[in-house]
Specification:
This protein is of the alpha/beta class. The chain has 14 helices and twelve strands. The structure holds NADP nicotinamide-adenine-dinucleotide phosphate (NAP).
């Protein structure tokens, strides 16, 4: 009997690769850039498990081009790149990597908040350009973070960690979320408010909601018009939650004070993109979970999801448990694991 075949769509930390290699034949896309959609389809055609990244579009056509595929594991917590309904309909289990990147991502979100509030990249530029002449009473004045109001959009795992960090800075905390979380409200001293109220009251707004039909384009001209003129928007969730053209206009016209973005629409942004060149906007290249520790844990959990799915068990982090025991998962296995 053959061993199961797993395709990994990029070079990832070794922990997960080694786990998979112990039980499976593993091939990997050996490049820093993602495979094109067609290349991925061709490379993955005979795989039983697919370890994918958020840069890979995994749709129904790809699933049909890979008839043996029983489990897809996204090395990310977001899974908007995967057609979950199509996977479930075919009995393909889908895993993701929540929790293990929560604090690393919240750390980056708070770092962006501080960097934008205190104009740190602009300060670095001044020194690098040899424009630092003296201590200046009006040089690079930023905004107080302490005691300011932070509005969190999406009080899930990462949103709650963001709130914890903000408490250490004595910030006043608000959140908007379709589900009220009374226990978290009590623990963190955070108040649930309607989205429009959050827009009106917050000095900083940090987005931590998933990209769904309900959040796509949530921040557009209408939302920016309701925000305080000095407010700073932080996005470490997904780029398309913010309407790029409306954000550029709001930053140029001073409708809002600034933005700090780990995620953008599109990704990547080229160096001549307006968002990259506005002094009141900070852009970093989608590095929310990019610590050695978090990426190692993501790699391991992504591999464990694959191994469980190949065994016909529920992945430890599964986004569509209803696929278990149905469709391809119900087929007899033609590999030994
Ligand atoms: P999570 O625990 O599922 O939290 C998401 C929260 O957003 C939930 O409380 C959810 O409410 C809420 N939500 C859903 N729709 C909303 C809406 N329209 N308005 C306000 N809140 C809404 O997810 P997480 O682990 O915190 O991750 C959040 C997102 O961060 C992920 O989906 C991913 O896209 C992104 N992320 C980015 C990076 C990065 O590298 N930059 C790293 C990790 C994660 P319900 O519980 O009611 O659904």
């Amino acid at each position: 009997m053959r061993r199961p075949h797993v395709f990994i769509t990029r070079r990832i930390p070794e922990t997960g690769v080694r786990l998979l290699q112990a039980a499976c034949d593993v091939t990997a896309w050996d490049d820093d850039l993602p495979p094109s959609y067609d290349t991925l389809r061709a490379q993955a055609q005979d795989c039983d498990g697919l370890l994918a990244l958020l840069t890979d579009r995994i749709d129904a056509a790809l699933m049909d081009a890979c008839p043996r595929l029983r489990v897809v594991s996204n090395m990310a917590v977001g899974f908007d790149n995967i057609d979950i309904a199509a996977a479930t309909a075919r009995g393909i289990l889908v895993g993701n990597t929540p929790d293990v990147l929560t604090e690393a991502t919240a750390d980056l979100a708070f770092a962006l908040l501080l960097a934008a509030a205190r104009r740190i990249p602009e300060g670095v530029d001044v020194v690098r350009a040899d424009r630092w002449q003296t201590w200046g009473p009006l040089l690079l004045l930023g905004r107080d973070v302490h005691h300011a109001t932070l509005g969190i959009v999406g009080l899930g795992r990462i949103g709650q960690e963001m709130a914890r960090r903000a408490r250490g800075f004595s910030m006043r905390l608000l959140y908007a979320d379709p589900t009220r979380k009374p226990a978290v409200e009590a623990e963190l001293g955070i108040a649930h408010v309607p989205f429009e109220e959050l827009l009106r009251q917050s000095d900083f707004i940090s987005i931590h909601a998933p990209l769904t039909d309900g959040t796509r384009g949530l921040f557009g001209a209408q939302a920016f018009a309701q925000m305080k003129p000095a407010a700073i928007l932080i996005n470490t969730a997904r780029g398309p939650i913010v309407q790029t053209d409306a954000l550029i206009a709001a930053l140029r016209e001073g409708t809002i004070g600034g933005a700090a973005l780990d995620v953008t629409d599109p990704e990547p942004l080229r160096a001549d993109h307006p968002l990259v060149n506005l002094s009141n906007c900070i852009v970093v290249p989608h590095i929310g979970s990019a610590t050695m520790q978090a990426r190692g844990r993501m790699s391991e959990l992504a591999a464990r999801n694959i191994l469980a799915g190949l065994h016909g068990a529920l992945p430890p982090a599964c986004v569509n448990p209803s696929a278990a025991g149905t469709g391809r998962q119900a087929q007899p296995r033609d590999y030994e694991i």
